[in-house]
Amino acid sequence: MGHGNSGNDGVLEAIWIKRAKRGAMDPAHSARLLAGSGIEGNADQGGWRQVTVIAREAWSRMMTSLGTHVDPSVRRANLLVRGVDLSEARGRILHIGACRIEVRGETRPCERMDEACAGLRDAMRADWNGGVFGVILDDGEIRIGDPVRLV
Fold first, then answer.
1. 5, 59, 126, 143: which has the fewest C-beta neighbours closer than 10 Å?
2. Cα 90 vs. chain centroid, distance in angstroms?
3. What is the side-by-side strand order in the sheet with 140-143?
């Protein structure tokens, strides 16, 4: 395990694949990433929003501030990472296992977030708490437990 002195080594904690637009988010142990396209089997393919990522720490902070606890799956992101700060990450490269994702921007929360939890949408607007989206640079398989690094 190569641990640099950067202090931003993390781990992939969860994977969700969306069967259809606005459809269910299926948890998965692994996922196949397709460069320039998206996650195999995921509804969103192509464009800039090929994969969405949220940070466990940001989620936990929001839950504390809202005085509630809902599962991060309600965020409807594809990947949950721990130990990586995604704020202001636009233009940086997120390494997950052997794959790279180029962060293209901040994922803005939609109205469905308040359906899941009152106040969640506003909480996500601060400090990139809603996570990031990006494009996939490498074909490959990622698995829960894979090392994650933002460079």
1. 5
2. 13
3. 38-39, 30-34, 140-143
- Global pTM reads 0.92
Residue 143's DSSP bridge partners are 30
Domain span including residue 47 = 9-150
Do the domain assignments include residue 72?
yes
Q: What is the CATH number of the domain that holds 29?
A: 2.40.33.20
Which pLDDT tens digit goes with each residue over 96-129? Answer: 999 999 999 999 888 889 988 999 999 999 889 9
Sign of CA dihedral 143, 144, 145, 147: positive
CA angle 133, 37, 50 (to 5 degrees): 15
Please, which residues have CB within 8 angstroms of residue 7's CB and are 6 or more apart in sequence?
none
Long-range contacts of 63-71 (CB under 8 A, 24+ apart): 65/123, 66/117, 66/118, 66/119, 66/120, 66/123, 68/117, 70/116, 70/117, 70/120
Based on the structure, what is the number of domains in the chain?
1
Task: Please report whether residue 122 resides in a domain.
Answer: yes
CA angle 78/81/85 to nearest 5° reads: 120
